[in-house]
Amino acid sequence: MAAICRSWFPHDPAWYVVDGELQVAQLLEAFQTFFREHSEHWVERFPYREAGPQLLLQAFLQRIVNAGGRIEREYGLGRMRTDLLIVWPVRGAVRKTVIECKLLRGSLDRTLREGLGQTRAYLERCTAAAGHLVIFDRTPNRSWDDRIFRLTETAGGPPVTVWGM
Hints:
single chain, alpha/beta, Restriction Endonuclease, six-stranded mixed sheet, disordered N terminus
């Protein structure tokens, strides 16, 4: 998996860092493209349905984030756990970004509602600067054009960027 992620990226991971800030939204946008093009080669190798997409996302992010920060996986926040917490040093401080991963189960509205509530709770608990909810749609025969989306949800709390894949 790491070999595919390495070959897909430009050689210098610094292209996702601007003025010392990690550009998480640009990384996730690039991951949408990568996931669309390569996911079928990887996600079916894992018996647990959520493991494949989540591990692929982690591998994709790891090379870039390791260039200056770190990723904490299954970071414990209260009773629940966020999937990924990116910790990135910025001008003597630390910027935290929560990334919660969900499989689409049932309706998109229900998955959004549950995922947004969870992501916002993590944001508040760990005082993160940004939150992202990644929803993996593994519905058979659904087109990629219907799976891929990006929106910013502001109602009901701090903004969370939602990524459909």
